[in-house]
Amino acid sequence: MSVLEGTWRSEYITTNGVKLHYVTQGEGPLMLMLHGFPEFWYSWRYQIPEFAQDYQVVALDLRGYNESDKPRELSAYNMRELIQDIRGVITGLGYDNCILVGHDWGGAIAWNFSYTYPEMVEKLIVMNIPHPAKFADGLWTIDQLQKSWYVFLFQLPFLPELLLQADDYRAISSGFVDMAIDKSAFPTHDLEAYKDAAAKRGALTAMVNYYRNVFPDFFNPQDRPEWGLLTVPTLMIWGESDTALGKELTYGTEEYVQNFKVRYIPNCSHWVQQEKPELVNEYMREYLSENI
C-alpha cells in the first residue's frame, strides 16, 4: 500500500514546547505508534490501515524528525523530554491511556514512558528494541559493542551528519537495504521518502542528537526510572536477523516485566514491521485480543 492510497489524515499537535506532526486514521481507543532511526511515521504504513479498523491510530513524527519541530539544543533530545512529548500527545488528543507501539528508538521511548506513566499504557508492544536494562547489560559485551559501533561514531560533532548526507543520503537508504533480508521490502520510492525526510533542514543533527544523549541517559540515575517490575502487559516482536541488536538481548526480559510475551520472526531484519508486515500485524492483533 503506498502512502497515496491511504485515507489517513496529516495533523499537528503542540505539546511540551514543540509542534509534532502525526498521521492518523480510524476511530476508537488510541493506538500510538513511535518510529525509530532513521525513519518517520511512514515506517508504520502497513500497520495504520490494519488497526484503524478498531482504533484511532496515531503514527507520530518524533521531535526532530520529518515535519515535527527540530529544537537545536542537544538537551532537547534527552529521554525526559521525549517522555513528556508522549504524555502530552496522549492527553492532548483527549485520551487517558493508549496502546503504545514502538520500534527501535520509538521502542526505547515506549519502554521508558511505560515505567514513568504505567497508568497511561493499556498494553505495550515493542519491536526490535530490548528492555533498557538488558541493552545496558549488552553494552558490556564485546559482541554487542561491535554491533553498536555507530552509537560511538554518533558521539562525534559534525562528522555523522556529513557521512549521512554524503552521496545523496546514500547511508540512509543503504541502512535499510543492506540490513534487510528481503531487499524487495524497500523499493525506491520508500527509500526516497526516508531520504527526503532526513534532508529537511535540521533533521540530521536532531536525529543524531538522540544518540548523543544515550550515555548521559543510561548512566545518570536522574534521567531514567528504576528498572523494577513493569506492570504493563508487554509484547515483544523480534526479527531474528537483526545485525544491530543481538537476539540474546531479549533473554531474561521476563525478569523485568510482569506479563511478558515474545514472538520471534526468523529470516527477518531489524526493520521487522516493514519486512514482515502481515506477520507483525497478525501477532499484534492476536495479542490485543487476549484478556490480560
TrEMBL record:
It comes from the Bacteria. InterPro entries: AB_hydrolase_1, AB_hydrolase_fold, Epox_hydrolase-like. Keywords: Hydrolase. One of its GO terms (molecular function) is hydrolase activity. Gene3D superfamilies: alpha/beta hydrolase. It comes from Lyngbya aestuarii BL J. Pfam families: Abhydrolase_1. Residues 29-277 form the AB hydrolase-1 domain. This is Alpha/beta hydrolase fold family protein.
